[in-house]
Amino acid sequence: MRLRYYILALIFIMQLFYGCHSYIQRTVLRSISKMGEAVLPPPHMITTSLFPDARLAVSWAGHSTVLIQIYDKLIITDPLLFDNVGMVVKREVKSGLDPAVLEKLDFTLISHLHFDHLDYGSIDVLPKDGVLIFPYGISGYIPDFDFQDAAELKTWDVFEKDSVRITAVPAQHFTSRYNFDRNWTEDSGYTGYVIEYKDITVFFAGDTGYNPEFFKEIGNRFKIDLAIIPIAPSWSNGFGNYVHTSPLGAIEVFKDVKAQYMVPIHFGALVYGSTADPLSPLYQLNTLAASGGIYDRITALEVGEQRIIY
Question: What is the CATH number of the domain that holds 232?
């Protein structure tokens, strides 16, 4: 079994090394070097999926997996619940969500088809009584999970059900699942989402680089209460790279969409190749937010932590 694991890992690495981003190469190599090490337990575990009196609450399971409660509705983003991604990339910290806690799921949102955002095993163990929503161009990668309903959305497409309105909004990323299929998917297959229900609006950025035109347009179209924005793995002094926002880039996104509060994601949970300290992006974000006078509007959660916003 162990030999099979390493053979599959090496095949995957060869694919990644062919025309892929250097940070992915470093991430995979670092993950393989840590294969024998135990994955750390989360500092918290999500204990409830619905708070009785909350208008808006968030629970962070780690990486890009966020449980969003808006009144009686429950939404999960990019579920990733197991210790390894694509059999190679390893978690630093275990997921803070046991799916048995979930009473229901009204919507499951997928931002794109990369292994750490579209994880078949994690989706398979979720409740299927709601709607699976994913970006246009990746339907061929979506098995029949037997959800009650499913929707494939192009940018600015809207899906409405039970008074919840979900809009696919622009993101700046790249697509492909196995690297060699990159030309098949071209510029489709990745998105952010805006979720509107009653008097609450939440923006989930997905995985994205900084694009002021995109985010200012989102800010002009919606009155956003909470923005959920990635801050890694690009934590340079600038806005990040083309496909990933740095902490500074994430703050610019936050300002552009004109949200009241921000929850940072996409850091700390997985082994990346860019830094020895997985919390470095958060430290940088906190410093920038404090110097910019917005520290009290940043809701930084530990893995498994839950917070009522309103």
Answer: 3.60.15.10
Given a cut of 70, is residue 56 above it in pLDDT?
Answer: yes
Helix 247-257 to helix 280-291 angle (10° resolution) is 50
Give me the sheet containing 226-230, strands edge to edge.
158-161, 164-169, 192-197, 200-204, 226-230, 261-265
User: In the structure encoding, which two tokens stand for residue 182, read together?
Assistant: 């990159």
What pLDDT digit, counting tens, does each position of 3-46 carry? 444 445 544 444 443 334 555 555 555 555 556 678 899 999 99
- Give the residue numbers spanning the domain of 226: 2-308
User: Tens of pLDDT along 174-230?
Assistant: 676 665 555 555 666 889 999 999 999 999 999 898 999 999 999 999 999 999 999
Contact between 108 and 117 under an 8 Å Cβ cutoff? The reply is no
pTM of structure: 0.87
Long-range contacts of 122-130 (CB under 8 A, 24+ apart): 122/65, 122/79, 122/80, 122/81, 122/82, 123/79, 125/81, 125/99, 126/76, 126/79, 126/99, 126/102, 127/99, 127/102, 127/103, 129/104, 129/105, 130/74, 130/104, 130/105, 130/106
CA 266 to chain centre: 6
- Nearest-angstrom CA–CA distance, 204 and 190: 12
The four Cα atoms 121, 122, 124, 129 give a dihedral, to 10 degrees, of -170
Positive or negative, the CA dihedral 54, 108, 259, 114 is positive
In one-letter notation, the amino acid at residue 21 is H
